[in-house]
Amino acid sequence: MQRKPFYFKGDTFKNRYRITGTLWTKSPMHIGTGETRADKAFEESDAYKNLSDEEKKKTKVPEIGEIARDYRDYPYIPGSTLRGVLRHFLLQLFQPINAHIARIENYETHARGEYAKQADQIIYIRDHACMLDQLFGTPFHESKVEFWDAYLENPIPENANTAKLKEKGWDNEGQSYVVRSVAIDPETGAAAPNKLYSFDVAPPGQKYKLDIVGYNLDHEELGMLITGLCGFNSEILPLQIGAMAGRGFGHLKFTLENIFYIENGNIKNYLSLALNNNLAGFDYLPLIVHENEKWQDCVKNFKDEFFAYAKGVGK
Fold first, then answer.
1. In this structure, what are the phi and psi dihedrals at residue 212, rounded to the nearest 5 degrees?
2. What is this structure's pTM?
3. Would 165 disulfide with which of 145, 170, 271, 308, CB 3.0-4.6 Å?
């Protein structure tokens, strides 16, 4: 089996896809920023307020680990985070089976050796890079898929259902609550003294809007991308996002909604729709999800190619 022709994102236009869907949090989610804030609950506690000014100076106010927040101060899932976890998931899944699909490559060494020139780097990506690198990008070339930030769509109203969360410091304006824990001494297995740490989490039940745009994708690449997204729903090897995965955090459910596309063959039709409606956005791209579920054929194409290489048919 010979390699199929590969098209870069910036090559002659072949097609453009937009995948839309939702990600539902099934468990708490903490996508940290590395920043912290003072624990207001501690500062407002009677125990702290009753301290003298001198005692307050000597008392360390606990810090709370912040999560990624959007312009509304709501939790959100950065597109770079989505791209990173999805690529890592696909690498874990396929690297042990076949290097044509996914493998770890040392591009820094390549760049210092025979692929130092850009022209040679282009040849390497076209003829030698694995499918995962071709799709998600490398230091030699840009990714063919853009992951947009996923924003919260269903802010939880403050009502009786959030009463239990209030005990955990539920912040209705920030749509998050605080998890408090202690560090464990690895030698004794007991809680380490003076090692209390706290961090914000987004609660289960939140809905985040997913948007992914792909350029010049063949059906196998589109199938690989959807296969990765379906990893969120896996019961064997679930794709998790954020920190504290070992504690069960970061479980989400993925629902595919629509796949819009435009390709060489339907550009005139697209332009006509856009001009007649005074709008040229993605909403006027044709749908393929509801056309006999053609997206499932893309997943099948990817699986067929994967199995062919796994059996040693490919080069």
1. -135, 135
2. 0.82
3. 170
